[in-house]
Amino acid sequence: MDAMENTSTTEELGTPAEVATLYHLLTRINRTLRTRGQSRNLSAGLASALWTIINHAPIRLSALAERESVSAPTISRLVTVLEDRGYIERTPDPDDGRARLLVPTPVGIELIAHTRTEKALLLSAAIENLPPEDRETVSRGFTILADALGKT
After folding, report:
1. What is the spatial distance between Cα 88 and Cα 10, in angstroms, rounded to a whole number?
2. Sheet of strand 88-93: strand arrangement
């Protein structure tokens, strides 16, 4: 194991090397959940866009691009793929006849529910193998980190 990966959880994570190690660990976790919990060849970008549409529907393309922190051309390509696969539909915006709103289809909702279930089961199995005190530490750490990232 690399010396940086032995960083004690009681030490501050302030140095660039410590932050890089934490980022690397988060990347490994995300990659594992993404690849082992993947369903029907849905990329991370497509899954994220679909999840956002499901949770914020009806939503305009521009609002989706903003929420996903991607450019208009990028989100447009993602939405086209999701629409072509039958996971979302474009409906008229009642406030602006020229605009379209994105809404999920039942197939899209089911796909994300299934993907969430696979990833949740994978994460649950890993957490269940931890001692109780480590489970609490992981839960508390993720909550604190998610809240801190939400404030930046």
Report:
1. 46
2. 59-60, 96-104, 88-93
